């Protein structure tokens, strides 16, 4: 089977660059390192865009709203200093290599190399390296501060420059399979060469020496056609026999007919593919040992089936033979009587020629070989037809016992295989479910109200500070339980006062994650104000600690908010999502939920118990609970609790808005 694609090719880059050219003139709002060596560029122009850049692997637009690290590393600080706020003037592919260059209006350039061990580098107006994700000295170039940036020597022929003469020149003197030689000599990826050969009607294992002039012409036309398709910036995701992603390409993969899915843009295809790639890897790792066991079971089943066939064939032969002996009993007895007389009178050697039906003898074993109805049978010279028939049926009985035992073994093996295949499917589903991209707000307490307003709250003083400083603004709502030691809660209202229902739902988050829960209270008051009423500035002569704020003006109170929190397990893209909120809200959006109140059960024990309880309620969806990270559930439990209710949810609404993004921009 072909290897799974793990990084973009030069054809992919050409396609993505054509798509990214639409972003010319957009302003770089910010840049982040979201994971180690994975960067996110936020751009705002005629449309907003997020571009993910992972040196050595990929560059494309992404729909995932991921956040940067709390403390930006030095490289990010340097990039922000030089290019944040600048307009994008050019996006281009360097030569026909796996390198993308973003040039900004101030002359600075950001280079992303997708080559093995590639780097991300910031260049000044003269093309000298200012900063890079890694400093490196190589055989043909150096990545070092102050040194002029040089790309590697070109490895591939640009498809626009590909002609029959170029191909003939490159193939001169070469030998071997045409697919391997073309990959090596032209520098194109295997998936492109294989598709070109398929379109040209040439078997990929054809010796390159046997290519004719028309073949070379067809190959050139096919490769150039693939390149032209790539510039249309559409995407196609290819799947293997198990339904797992195999590759993603910017051209129609005709060689995989029936096993690919078209996607409207190459970035969307790449974005989806790399998430699914993580799932495919997780599935393969999870079931690797089980698949080995399955292979052994299949081999054992095959061997047992062969043994059963062997027993049945021998049994049929013996049954036919027993019938022949019975039908020719007199002849058998006469032949054996004759053989005994000849042995006594003349010796063994005289038996075959003088006793009808005897074709051979084996004196050492005391055996004569009789031809009975065309079948040769070995018989003890002292025997007779009756004893021979009895002996044949004794052997038939033994074969039947062996066959019966083998059939039982076969049934057990098939049951084990069926059980193992079920286990493999379940483990694959659990492995898939464990892979889920987390949204930026998931590091906080979070919830979406009935009218899909995002609510977030700090988990500690540091997060309270972050929530207010980064997300509150004048037009959002600040909410706080009327007790010392409570999260700063922000409701993304966008300047409009939310319905009372949504206010009350958000108040549950403010109340339940406050100190009131740990103190075992039954209810508490919660107030809300507009962001413009909240300030970090302390009154003269006073000091505000980290996570503390001043609230000015009239407060709007929600009295007696009950400390009851529903924790539900919902499904999103075959993965489990933990949601919290008031009982009715969570019931609508979850598959199963628990209603909690302050109590005595420690969160760590409760989280494990909830996984078991959820699994028992979910039936064929139990894998969602089993694949759940217990720590994710633990993070949503406010403190020592008691379970008031465990029930199936309705799941008639998604756990969060699908086609909508939180109206928060991380611009700091």
From TrEMBL:
Basic and acidic residues compositional bias, start-end: 646-662
Region of interest (Disordered), ranges: 646-668
Gene3D superfamilies to which the protein is assigned, alphabetical: ibrinogen binding protein from staphylococcus aureus domain
GO function terms (MF aspect): ribosomal large subunit binding; tRNA binding
Parts forming coiled coils: 273-324, 389-434
Any single Gene Ontology cellular-component annotation: RQC complex
GO biological process, one term: rescue of stalled ribosome
Name the UniProt record assigns to this protein: NFACT RNA-binding domain-containing protein
Source species: Pyrolobus fumarii (strain DSM 11204 / 1A)
